């Protein structure tokens, strides 16, 4: 497996991102930690260096093409898994304040190791389900941006994510391919939780069809949302 600093730098440059030496080192350390830990725990099916750059790092960072990541912002990465998109976003945009949330504690322990090894500041990894975290005033309606690459339908994700946004904040769902029908089916969930769909972006990224759905928080989320654990997934709004 070929691991090359130059390949990483070139692909980032082609993507419109210029990395400092520190950022290059952070991405390389992240890759090493990811692939090492993946030998003993299922973090990703993608482990070849070139593919990790394209399908994890650049895919995570493609948000910058449709959403302004400049300025101080509080960001929640819900269902972060192995740290995507939150850690690549934090590396490239270090001014962001980031919370990585996941329901599996083993992943959170891995992410805490990554944060320490990479020397990242103003980022924390939190173990918890969205339904429970959203009841906590530390997190509810506290974020400017909520992102999720988690695999769930948009109705479920909207109920999970929109409650965490302040009014005026934005939820961005990373999706694959054709998304119009799913977006239409999610209109009720988006409306009930206080959101409004702003735009759908579709693009190709290394033979992958990618979509972003941007949803703005326009009013407070009623106290009943998200519903109790398991319901948003089993019975989408």
Description of the structure:
The mean pLDDT is 95. This protein has a single domain (69-234), classed as 3-Layer(aba) Sandwich (Rossmann fold), CATH 3.40.50. α1 packs parallel to α3, α2 (21-37) packs antiparallel against α5 (105-118) and α3 (49-61) packs across α4. The protein is of the alpha/beta class. The chain has ten helices and seven strands. The protein has helices at 5-14, 21-37, 49-61, 86-92, 105-118, 130-133, 154-161, 180-185, 187-192, 231-234, and strands spanning 74-78, 97-102, 123-127, 143-148, 165-176, 195-205, 208-217. It starts with a helix and ends with a helix. Strands 3-2-1-4-5-7-6 form a seven-stranded mixed sheet, with helices on both faces.
CATH homologous superfamily? Vaccinia Virus protein VP39
CATH topology: Rossmann fold
Q: What is the H-and-E element order?
A: HHHEHEHEHEHEHHEEH
Q: CATH class, anyone?
A: Alpha Beta
CATH architecture title: 3-Layer(aba) Sandwich
The backbone outline, from C-alpha atoms, is globular
Rg, rounded, reads: 17 Å
Tell me the total number of β-strands. 7
Count of helical regions:
10
Summarize the structure.
This protein is an alpha/beta fold. It has helices at about 5-15, 20-35, 50-60, 85-90, 105-120, 130-135, 155-160, 180-185, 185-190, 230-235; strands at about 75-80, 95-100, 125, 145-150, 165-175, 195-205, 210-215.
Lay out the secondary structure:
Layout: H1 5-14, H2 21-37, H3 49-61, E1 74-78, H4 86-92, E2 97-102, H5 105-118, E3 123-127, H6 130-133, E4 143-148, H7 154-161, E5 165-176, H8 180-185, H9 187-192, E6 195-205, E7 208-217, H10 231-234
Parallel strand pairs: 1-2, 1-4, 2-3, 4-5
Antiparallel strand pairs: 5-7, 6-7
Helix pairs in contact: 1-3, 2-5, 3-4
